[in-house]
Amino acid sequence: METRFISTFLIISLLFLTPVFSSNPTGIPEGISKSINEGDCKELARFFNNNIELMILDNEDVYSKSQAELIMKDFFSKYPPAEFVIVHEGGREASRYAIGRLVTEKTVFRLYFLLQKLEDNFFIHQMRIEPDDKE
Fold this sequence. Notes:
The chain contains four helices and six strands, in the order H-H-H-E-E-H-E-E-E-E. The chain is about 35% helix and about 45% strand. It has a single domain (about 25-130), classed as Roll (Nuclear Transport Factor 2, Chain: A). Strand 1 (about 50-55) and strand 2 (about 60-65) form a beta hairpin. The protein has helices at about 1-20, 30-40, 40-45, 65-80; strands spanning about 50-55, 60-65, 80-90, 95-105, 110-120, 120-130.
């Protein structure tokens, strides 16, 4: 009887603790990297907050989600992505950030974005795209 209790207790404990150990508190949603890599502004916009601060090359402003989608569409048409890789990421429970390297047909960019947690989802609040000085 005691062995059965201990076994049941261990199984229940593992079921509750597994999500804690398997979750990545600084992980960036995979869909963001995938949409940037594919130049898919519509999919990327799903991760935008209702208002987003965009800084692309020399242009900087706060835009609505739909305006930001159009701006990214224009950017991707001028600079079709060849590869996007996140080189650094971090954060806490309520906010995350990532720094990536975006290789396009014409040049290489450094891309930064900041996500904030709203309810149970993370949304991009700020995105910056600038030339990569290392190229």
